[in-house]
Design a protein that fits this description.
Blueprint: H1 4-23, E1 28-38, E2 48-58, E3 62-72, E4 79-96, E5 99-115, E6 120-134, E7 140-149, H2 159-166
Length: 169
């Protein structure tokens, strides 16, 4: 099962990689609206509906915004959202031979999961610095987390297990 860090950094990567083409032009304003169904949510064989909304702004070396995804179990109506908020400083490092690293520094409350209309399930806060590595073809190779300061329970939890339990799948 994928770990939470995959989801959290996927969101950071989404912001960082979507902003790459516009950083030279900056500032840029992007709105995100997407609705879809995952027919095999976290390998359960059950469908979960998702709606992602958000907005972010990009400048030469930073992004700021909020992306919220609401996951709904259509069988029982339970909905849980995860959100990524705040800003990130983005640096690009040439690793040679076309490979590169995107360094992302996040401060504040980068991630939270909450039952819609209900209790908070998990929340990260503080400082995170991560290096996201890509090959010359732009393929994601992995992430090295170099600084973690503050409570970040999301780095050790199993995101799928958390969501399967919260959505009562």
């Amino acid at each position: 099962m994928r770990k939470f860090v995959t989801g959290a950094f996927a969101a950071a990567l989404l912001i960082a990689t979507c902003v790459i083409p516009v950083l030279a032009a900056g500032p840029d304003h992007e709105t995100i609206r997407d609705t879809y169904a995952d027919p095999d949510f976290c390998g359960t064989g059950q469908t979960v509906n998702a709606e992602a909304t958000g907005v972010f702004n990009g400048w030469d070396d930073k992004v700021f915004g909020h992306i919220r995804t609401t996951w709904t179990n259509p069988a029982n109506g339970i909905a849980v959202y995860d959100s990524v908020s705040g800003g990130a400083k983005v640096s690009f490092i040439d690793d040679g031979d076309g490979a590169y690293t995107i360094a992302v520094t996040r401060e504040g409350q980068p991630f939270r999961v909450q039952v819609v209309g209900g209790p908070l399930i998990v929340q990260d806060a503080g400082l995170i610095i991560a290096y996201n590595h890509f090959d010359a073809d732009g393929n994601y190779l992995g992430t090295d987390v170099v600084v973690v300061d503050g409570p970040h329970p999301g780095f050790t939890l199993d995101w799928c297990a958390l969501m399967i339990d919260a959505l009562q799948l």
